[in-house]
Design brief:
Rossmann fold; 13 strands; 3-stranded antiparallel β-sheet; globular
């Protein structure tokens, strides 16, 4: 439950729509286009800090980000902000050392392996059901569907091969690698990401013991470390991964700053808004992936396009160009459809502003 003070403030907020545009009136009486969050951070910092701490408490109680934003609906039933806002605020509090976040665990594992898995031999993929076997959850923003790394792992590696993920996020790739008896390593600059990935791995270990449905080789237990992926070779060497030894790289980098994964960490690529600067940094990572990859290895990169000031930024094609500059050979391009983007409800299309929502991503398959 929300405190009476928070509830009273929410009840004073009003959201209206004028000619298709969203208008939000704050409890202080001022009105803003689309969102009052920047205003609250600037003019009502104490209230916003209280809200952020409540976000974290609800999260520690096991509520999803979506359930949290439902708690903070206005009196007339409108969503005040997206799940992304909640996650970003929790990240800031964790990075500032103001709270410890408990990573929620699944109450029950219904199945350890996907009963409906099949390898799609076409260049368009769509996963309306995200996939929730083993310890997978969709609570870490931006995580890809486990069907993607599962397909890549089955296609491009064998048991005991080395698989790495330089943007490990919530650990989806590592979970799939362990379930399929691969040796896997993950890296991420976000402490929240590493805490989530390691919590999922530990949860797998604990829940698999004594469960006759699954056997996990403890010598293949994944390793997730905190670090900057622009120093990928350095971090991999520290955990025993050498050049020319990696069979598969599964990379799902940020899409510029469309979704920030940290609140205060300057090395985070998701804090870069300039496409040229972003691609410069991504190319540094591509060069290191090339060196780590075995001669018959594969690098798969999932990346999407973004909008800036109403114009499309073809981030997918820009990324493709940078990997080709590092001597990667393009094997395939797969177009993946996006589903259930929680930010969709905050978009309002007008003929003179925005005609289409972006609903596609590119999966590039590279070899050496």
């Amino acid at each position: 439950m929300l405190t009476p003070i928070i509830r009273n403030k929410l009840d004073e907020i009003r959201i209206t729509y004028e000619n298709g545009c969203r208008r939000v009136r704050c409890f202080c009486g001022r009105t803003f286009n689309t969102s009052i969050i920047p205003h609250m951070k600037r003019e009502h910092s104490e209230e916003w800090e209280e809200w952020g701490i409540k976000f974290a408490k609800l999260r520690n109680e096991g509520l999803s980000y979506y359930c949290i934003i439902k708690r903070f609906k206005t009196k007339d039933g409108h969503f005040l902000f997206t799940s992304r806002v909640v996650e970003n605020e929790i990240q800031r509090l964790v990075e500032d050392g103001k709270l410890e976040l408990e990573i929620p665990r699944k109450e029950k594992i219904d199945e350890w392996q996907p009963s409906d898995f099949r390898i799609r031999r076409v260049t368009s993929w769509s996963f309306k059901d995200r996939g929730s076997w083993a310890v997978h959850q969709g609570d870490y923003r931006g995580n890809w569907s486990p069907y993607i790394p599962r397909t890549l792992i089955e296609l491009y590696s064998q048991e005991e091969d080395i698989v790495i993920d330089p943007f490990v996020g919530g650990g989806t790739t590592l979970i799939e690698a362990w379930l399929t008896n691969r040796r896997s390593f993950g890296l991420d600059v976000s402490p929240l990401a590493i805490a989530t990935a390691n919590s999922r791995i530990q949860e797998m270990l604990e829940k698999s013991i004594g469960d006759p449905r699954i056997y996990l080789r403890q010598d293949l237990m994944p390793i997730a470390v905190e670090g900057d992926s622009r120093r990928l070779r350095h971090h991999m060497k520290e955990v025993g991964v050498l050049d020319n030894s990696v069979k598969l790289v599964c990379a799902h980098p940020p899409y510029l700053n469309s979704l920030r994964y940290t609140a205060t960490i300057s090395e985070d690529l998701s804090r870069i808004s300039n496409p040229v600067e972003f691609c410069d940094q991504l190319q540094l990572i591509a060069k290191q992936i090339f060196d780590l990859l075995a001669e018959d290895g594969t690098c798969a990169v999932l990346i999407g396009d973004v909008r800036k000031s109403g114009r499309i930024v073809p981030l997918g094609f820009l990324t493709l160009e940078r990997f080709l500059k590092e001597d990667f050979k393009l094997r395939d391009i797969i177009v993946k459809m996006q589903h259930k983007d929680s930010s969709t409800r905050f978009w309002y299309t007008k003929r003179d502003k925005l005609d289409f929502l972006i609903a596609h991503e590119y999966l590039f398959i590279f070899g050496k």
